[in-house]
Amino acid sequence: MEQSNTLQRLRRRLESNTGKAIADYRMIDDGDTVLVCISGGKDSYTLLSVLMALRERAPVDFRLIAMNLDQKQPGFPAEVLPGYLAKLGVDYRIVDQDTYSIVRSKIPEGKTTCSLCSRLRRGVIYRTAKEVGANKIALGHHRDDIVHTLFLNLLFAARLKAMPPKLLTDDGAHVVIRPLAYCSEKDIARFARGMAYPIIPCNLCGSQDNLQRQKIRAMMADWDHRYPGRTEAVFSALQKVVPSHLADQTLFDFQGLRPGGDPATMDGGDLVFDPAPLGEILPSLQGVPLAVRA
């Protein structure tokens, strides 16, 4: 299929951003087997497409196995993904596990299902990774997902925590990677439309109006509309953490700070918000009287 110039530019940008994230966090090594989780949504389709393209020219050799969990949701088009993946020519596994019934039986009507559903899916994914010999698990979360998760934890769980681009599973058996960490949702959505992926909606949780994540999404959309670049700025901040200017005593020795100590231990001292280096400011203050109130 011939692709438009716009679609080709989008592909190059997505591949470039993904390749940079993989390199920055050393997500994939030579000889890795990567289980790519495919939900049928725009993000996971894009993830698989980009990883397949990068594999062709990567300096390391790695194997991709696509995996979809059929959760037995009513009306789920079970034939779509096997047909698509077979046509693509990628190794894949379709895992049948009726997590839908479990979630519906455990969660009261009207309550959000994401937490339990996510835990059940995670267990099946980890088990499948072990069965196929995968040491890496690739998820389709992008930059916007990571920023939204930061605010979810900040505002609703009182934690300064987001989705890391790379993490070790609780049992230490696998490494979870998010190769789309540098990619924007807007680019992914445009690319998915151009590629005409056979999108499968999530009727179990995606349509719930009371999800806190939907509220955060709306908040960030408003911020980005009024102040373009807010999402990018917040994500950049996640890569420039200054422990001495937060309040976590396990990350910085606040009790050990004493007059006469080394200001370098303060990650910028008290000048972190100053617009210019102190050396440029002090000469302009020479001879300026100070107003002191008792």
TrEMBL record:
Enzyme Commission designation: 2.8.1.-
Pathway(s) it belongs to: tRNA modification
Cofactor: [4Fe-4S] cluster; Mg(2+)
Positions of the tRNA(Ile)-lysidine/2-thiocytidine synthase N-terminal domain: 34-195
UniProt entry keywords in alphabetical sequence: 4Fe-4S, ATP-binding, Cytoplasm, Iron, Iron-sulfur, Magnesium, Metal-binding, Nucleotide-binding, RNA-binding, Transferase, tRNA processing, tRNA-binding
Cofactor note as given: Binds 1 [4Fe-4S] cluster per subunit. The cluster is chelated by three Cys residues, the fourth Fe has a free coordination site that may bind a sulfur atom transferred from the persulfide of IscS.
Subcellular localization, as worded in the UniProt entry: Cytoplasm
Gene Ontology MF annotations: 4 iron, 4 sulfur cluster binding; ATP binding; magnesium ion binding; sulfurtransferase activity; tRNA binding
SUPFAM superfamilies, per database record: Adenine nucleotide alpha hydrolases-like (SSF52402)
Gene3D superfamilies: HUPs
Quaternary organization: Homodimer.
Extra information: The thiolation reaction likely consists of two steps: a first activation step by ATP to form an adenylated intermediate of the target base of tRNA, and a second nucleophilic substitution step of the sulfur (S) atom supplied by the hydrosulfide attached to the Fe-S cluster.
Protein's name in the database: tRNA-cytidine(32) 2-sulfurtransferase
The organism of origin for this protein: Accumulibacter regalis
Gene name as annotated: ttcA
